Amino acid sequence: MTIKDLFVSAPGKAILHGEHAVVHGKVALAVSLNLRTYLRLKGTTTGNVCINLPNIDTFLCYDLSELKQLIPGSCGKREDGKLLDAELVRRLREFIGVTNGNLDTCNMATLSFLYIYLSLFGSSELPSLTVSVWSELPTGAGLGSSAAYSVCLAAALLCTSGAIPAPLKDLDPTARWCQDDLERINSWAFQGEMIIHGNPSGVDNAVGTWGGMLRFLAGKIIPLSRVPLLRILLTNTKVPRSTKVLVARVKDKINKFPSIMIPVLDSVDAISCTCEKVLSEMTSEPITGEHYNILEELIDINQHHLNVMGVGHSSLDTLCQVTLTKGLHSKLTGAGGGGCGITLLRPETDSSVVQTTVQDLKDCGFDCWETSIGGPGVQQHSPLSVKEEVLEILNRY
User: What mean pLDDT is predicted for residues 234-260?
Assistant: First the structure.
């Protein structure tokens, strides 16, 4: 089979409002983060399949004749992408030497890649190819880096296997897939996430696939048709935290003070719904300063609520104070207890203000990026539409 070179990218994700409350049946809003993961797939004649992940210093090649033997007898080409093939996962774990369940980032990424590759190509003809991935997202920061990786893998391998067409036409810089093809990409990306996380919610891969903003309520994920692109600062405090411990802390507080905490959750729910309404208005009428005033107030109120829930941290308080001295409004995003925060930038916020704020935050020992939320989901690129520095990295392999 002839394999065409393919470039794809997918965004990260941030929770705009509703973290922790979503665990207790309230609305959460997840948005795409325009720090992207880029993938290049190219055909080779080496008789190997290779995966290059320079972010995590992983460069591996596998002999196709060895991989063929791992495919369970009953497993032809699979295109459903609904349920994990437990037998194939078991064989792959054995093959890469991780049967004890302790997977590091490198093993999880490799397992996810080999699983999707073998499932889609079946035992018919395993193509010789090289996949190289570079991400602008930090790993393990709750920003959907593993889902962006899984979405890129699914899109590239589905295209190469012929299960979905490549959407890019001549002279297009970028192109997106149709709804049915996106459903299929999302379904396979979710399988990759299951291998990496065990029991994922499906929110991260859905944001990576569709982009924009998603409403998440009681396990149901609804992509919102149009949202404005908002400029933000994303700050990683680099304070490690355990999501499990923080979720348990909120639950304990609710059990201890139900009459106090249940109204807090209801208020967070109302914040998410109000924010959704304002963002929807911003796509259908001229954007005004008042829209931004409301978004800023919602950020402040929600951050106070998250502190009430017990998931704040002194590093996040510092973020809020540093940005407030510049007239900017911030909140934690994700689990809290450290981790990451987002700061809303108005269209008129001067670049000198942004630069000094970023520097002030870096001086606190944080990592900080200026980026945007609400951008496109997974897309195919022409080589010229890939950022020069990213292309340079992907073309090394």
Answer: 93
